[in-house]
Amino acid sequence: MRIGRASAIAAAVLSLSACGDATGPQDSPLVVHILDTRTEAPAKVSVTFQVATEAGDPVPNLPVNAFELFDNGLSDSGFESSKAFQPKPGRFQTSVALLLDMSGSITGTSAFPLLKTAAKAFVDKAFEASGVVVGVWWFDGGSDIVQLVNFSSDPAALKAAIDGLSASVTRDNSTNLNGAVQLGVGVVEQRMQNGAQSGATQTGALVIFTDGTDQANRVPASAALAAVTATQIAVYTIGLRGEIDENFLNRIGRSGSAFADNSAALLAQFTGVGGQIEAMANSFYVLAYCSPRRAGANNTLTIRATLGPRQAQASTTYSAVNFTGGCTI
Questions:
Q1: What is the CA radius of gyration of the chain?
Q2: Residue 96 maps to which CATH number?
Q3: What is the rounded CA–CA span in Å between residue 244 and residue 171?
Q4: Rounded CA separation 95/105 (Å)
Q5: Which residues, including other chains, have CB under 8 Å from residue 73's CB and lie 6 or more apart?
Q6: 189 in a structural domain
Q7: Residue 194: partners with Cβ closer than 8 Å, 6 or more residues away
Q8: SS3 of residue 298 by DSSP
Q9: 118 and 162 in contact (C-beta within 8 Å)?
Q10: How many domains is the chain built from?
């Protein structure tokens, strides 16, 4: 690729998964969220961003021609420009904590083996996206949550650990749901904080399964809701109908909720939420851009996404001080 004057502009947009079609509700406006902007010599700008809807649904697998760039108000379509998907291993990491209710109402019934089957299906589905790590914790009426497997990129190890769960793990037949929500949010946030040191862009999700309501009364419902409101991670809930409070689980599961009428239906609900995790991970993109600017500490770069009749854009700034020629993607 020839680099010089206006033709110095080159762009590459990365989807974490290059397969499948873009999806998303057809009646909700698009939103572009810029997460990170970096520069490197001689003139490269990299922007990490997410495309979602105003309703909060991720928009994964957009093709490169869904994006248009504006540098200081000038569209890249007015220049000789090249766009292509490029692999960027290690650029993203999505940490997912699966938090399972192991109170007596689950472990002492026929729902327990079906729950384990459903949880393993969730693991398989979540790993269909790149850059995902999954950890599994459980709770009962105790004051803590118990780690079954720390965050791992090995689905076989995760599924083996889930298989190894036995009814004897329950220590307290009560249900500390509110406390588990609080602690689960903290586990994912700590993982993202630790992972940021690797240089990879961090995202996170908490998936909570329960068949009941909080009985332990250790933590008020307001505190659990406050933890969810304050966090930047995605939070999903899966409930087994019978004794659950669906309204409460919908409020906790601000990123999505699923309810099973009976234990045999758990597989479909866990797989569905796993698909939502996959879509979330695949809704993050990277723009790699060779800027023609050679000065200016506050150049404005705008990314516009188009899906059918819907458009959205977001802007970031970058410094071109000391930029020179010779940039390649």
A1: 22
A2: 3.40.50.410
A3: 21
A4: 29
A5: 300, 302
A6: yes
A7: none
A8: coil
A9: no
A10: 2
Range of the domain at 313: 5-86+284-318
Residue-by-residue pLDDT tens, the chain, 329 positions: 222 223 233 333 333 222 334 444 567 899 999 988 999 999 989 888 899 999 888 999 888 888 889 999 988 754 433 333 344 445 778 999 999 999 999 998 999 999 999 999 999 999 998 889 999 999 999 999 999 999 999 999 999 999 999 999 999 999 999 999 999 999 999 999 998 888 788 899 999 999 999 999 999 999 999 999 999 999 999 999 999 999 999 999 999 999 999 999 999 999 999 999 999 888 888 888 888 899 999 999 999 999 999 999 999 999 999 999 888 87
Specify the pTM.
Answer: 0.82
* Residue 328 lies inside a defined structural domain of this protein: no
Q: Both tokens of residue 270?
A: 């866990």
**Residue reference for tokens 């060779």:** 290
> Tokens representing 315?
């802007």
Q: Which residues are paired to 97 by β-bridges?
A: 135, 206
Q: Side chain identity at 261, as an amino acid letter?
A: D
- Sheet of 74-75, strands arranged across: 74-75, 67-71, 299-307, 310-318
User: Is residue 308, in this structure, part of any structural domain at all?
Assistant: yes
Note whether 78 and 101 are same-domain residues: no
Q: What is the CATH number of the domain that holds 39?
A: 2.60.40
Do both 237 and 106 map to the same domain? yes
> Which tokens belong to 61?
């697998």
